[in-house]
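Journal club side-thread
Mid-discussion, someone asked how the predicted structure for our own chain would compare to the paper's figures. Pasting it here so we can look after the session.
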Amino acid sequence: MAVSLQPPLIAVSLDRRSKACRVLDRRSFAVSILSQSEHELALHFAGQPQPDVCVEWVPNRIAPTICGALASLTCTPWATYDGGDHILYIGEVQTFTRAPANAPLLFHQGAFHRIGPQVADLPWHVTLDSPAAGTVWHTYPHRVKKKTP
């Protein structure tokens, strides 16, 4: 998930019991975003080995990425946080590549999904919490306070 635009930071949340969690601490890493047609590859990396899956890697000076991925980000370590039974790794994005437009693979509530029809206007562009609006809203337990930057 995105964390910051300046500097460009992303977060990866891993179960403490995962193999990746044991080797990721203070190491560079890559995130590969797969397309809808790559669900078997996703299962393979989720701990369900798929016998017919052959992973091709693209070498990179920071961390290898998956060949043919819809998009790839390579990151250097920024911070690590305790997240209960998960660990949150924050990485500073060093490289970003993407393939021509294709539908991403989505996983939610234990199943793969497709993206629905595109919404014409992005809903947050008309909210007062949008950076374009020039104001920032802080919500407190029983009141809302407007703060002008």
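Post-session note: The first strand starts at residue 2 and ends at 4.
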